[in-house]
Structure formats: structure tokens, C-alpha cells
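WARN retry 2 of 3 for item q-0093 after timeout on previous attempt; input resubmitted unchanged.
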Amino acid sequence: MAEGDPVDHLGGAHQAHPEQVTRQDLYAQVWKAPMLRVAERHGVSSSFLARVCAVMNIPRPARGHWAKLEFGKADPPPPLPEAGAGDKLVWNCGREPDIVAPAPPKPPSVRPPKLRRPVVALTSKRHPLIVGAREHFAKGRVNDAGLLKPAKKLLVDLVVSETSLDAALDTANQLFTQLEHAGHRVMLASTGRLQAFSPYALAPWSRQWRETSGKKLTNQAAGIVAELGDAAVEIARLVEEGERQAEIRQLAWEAERRRQAEEAERARQVRVRKESLAELLAVISSWGEMKRMQAFFEEADIEAERLEPGNRELARERIQLARALIGDRQALEALLARRSPDER
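OK item q-0093 returned
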């Protein structure tokens, strides 16, 4: 199948799991229906399909696109970019290793690249964040709890007493050096406690290590870094599951919106039918009344012509005044002016 061949917009022409999907076909599918539906059709997860789109350089709808589409406010699909030298043109569903290999999310850098410091060798050399920190802590005030409060704000985040300052700085030095070398972002929350956390909102994960009398954080540094490396796989799984659950919630929200809209339309149809019926009954009632009055005036005209000339003119005048009082109402015009339920 060539890239320019006709595409199937999630119709019934393809089998449940087609052998191949062209780049243009997949682009049309992901802009025709939510990723979860397209992924189910091909027997894969939505996050897997997102990676396929990335490998094939296929733009896909941003989160909230389908909800905006319900109200006609969604942005139009961007054009499919020209295939680059490394872009895949055909997806062999679930077979290509460079597409199916899961890629765990990379943790963010400790700091922006332009501020990156050289990685410090795992020696006794002081880490750049520790250099000069002791002097600032020593010159700071001591609060009511006996903890040092340095005046400098941009300083390593340590909550320590004067007696534990050196030990805390040594611990921070080793941990900062190894964790920066491994590319992890952590937070030294308080004395004797280290906390690492996931930076991804869809993947809630955190881990704490506490210092005890028999097990100092300094001696745990290598093990902590190794444990954080192993945690990347779990965080990647949590991200994928979080994306899947978010898309399920989005689809459920869209289904609920459609259900509410259908329910409102059914209620509207019931209301307009009642209104239309009431109008029709009023027209029928008016029709009978108008016919009765019309027959009355026709008979009055006949009877007036039989009167003596003096009384005849008086009767004609009275009949004309009565007609003017009632007005020129026509039942047929009222019927034609009535709107049917489909016209409302």
C-alpha cells in the first residue's frame, strides 16, 4: 500500500488487526477518533500507539481536543508533514522493534544545560553546591529549636544544628555528587532524611531514606543511586498507566456529555410535541367557533333582507358593527400559521 492510496477512516473495510498501516492512513485515523479507540482497533495500548506516531512523525490531537470538538472549538488538524529520511512509511502492526520497544521517560536534568557544572569525580573533592556552605551556616542565626538559619537564600537546603553541620555537609557532598552523576533530581528535606520523587504528575512516586544510629546516609549513597536507577522502570510504567487512565476518563466524560445532550434533545422533543398539540387543539376549537359565528352572520344577513326598508337598514348597520367587533378571523389562516414539532 503506497502513501497516497485511499485511507480507511475507522470504517469496516479493514480487519480487526491489519497487517500494515500506512503513515497517511494512521494520520487519518488518529484525527478521526480518540487514541484509545484507534489503539483498541489495532490491539495495542494508547501509549504504544503514541510511540508509533512519534516514530512515524505523525502529529496527533492534544489532550482536550475531542472535548473542544463537541462544541466546535477544536483547532483543525495540522497537515501531515513530509516524511523525513528516518521516518517510517508503513507500520507492521506490533512487529517492528524500533517501534515497539518501550522507552522509559527520562528524568529532567538537575539544572538547565547552560548552568550545568562538570560532573565531580567520586572522590573527597567538595561538590560545587557544598563549597563555601559551611561559612554561611556558621555565620547564620540559631532559631529557638537550635537549628542554623543562614542569611543567604541560594544555599544548599540543609536543616541542621551546629553540632551536626559537618556530618550533614559530608553526607550532602557524597549524595549530591553521585546523584548528579546519575542524572537524578532529589530533595534533601531535613536532617537525617533524603527524599526522591517523580517529576511526572501522572506518575506519583516518592521514596525516603532515613539516617539511623547504625546506618548513616553517607554509607547508603551508592545503594540509593542504584535504587533510583531501578525506579525508572516503575516510573515509566506509572506514566503509561496514568496516560491510559486519563484517556479513559476523557472518553467517559465525552460519553457523559453525549448522553446529556441526547437526553436534553429527547426532553425538547417531548416539550415541542406538547406545545404543537396544544396549538392544534386551540386551532380546532377556534375553527368551530369561527364557523358558528360565520353561520350566524350569514343567517342574520338573510333575515335582514326580509325586513321593512327602515328596519332593514338598521339591521344591516348592527350586523356590520358586530362583525367589526369580532374582527376578520380566519380559521384556515391560524392552521397554516401553526408550526409542527419538526419545524420547532
